[in-house]
Amino acid sequence: MVPQLSAWGTDGPWAGRRGFDSLVQAATGIAATEGSPGQPGTLPAQALDHGTGYLLAAAVLRCLTERLEEGGTRLVRPAPAGTAAWLTGGSVGGDERSGVVGGDELSGAAYDRPDPWPATTGSPLGRLRYALPPVSFAGGPADWSRPPGVRGTDEARWI
Fold first, then answer.
1. Is the pTM of this model over 0.85?
2. Cα distance between residue 115 and residue 69, in whole Å
3. What is the pLDDT of residues 44-101, one digit of tens each?
4. What is the largest CA-CA distance in the chain?
5. Of 14, 61, 104, 121, which residue is most buried, by most CB within 10 angstroms?
6. Contact 125, 103 (CB under 8 A)
7. Do the Cβ atoms of 80 and 52 come closer than 8 Å?
8. pLDDT tens-digit map of 112-132
9. Domain residue spans in the chain?
10. Residues 6+ apart with CB under 8 A from 28
């Protein structure tokens, strides 16, 4: 398996440029969507970098599984610009692929609000709001194995 990570992808006019999450948010319109008419905004985290990392990790696991079942090698090319296109329902260079060469296209509704991801649970300090796992799959967990802890409330031990 060969992973190749770049900000803008390997094809198109920006393929050779360097970049990072905030630049990709500005270039793909996320900063305009999240901001106001007088000031650009941002997502509440470096979500494109994080999301692309999760997609890369998922692609690596998928490639390893396919290699065990079918043999061969895989080429994985994720990019924050591709993640932005997937989340906003847009495209990068006319291509909405996941970055896995020869892989399946990503599917799902465009991101328009965070409603499916935040969850709340009780904690020693009151109600705790947290993000659900960013990747889901048939038969996989719908939530973390345990809710996020509050600093100082967990016993110090190896899990």
1. no
2. 37
3. 888 899 999 999 999 999 999 999 999 888 888 899 998 998 888 765 544 433 333 3
4. 54
5. 14
6. no
7. yes
8. 444 566 778 877 677 877 777
9. 2-88, 113-159
10. 81, 84, 85, 88, 90, 92
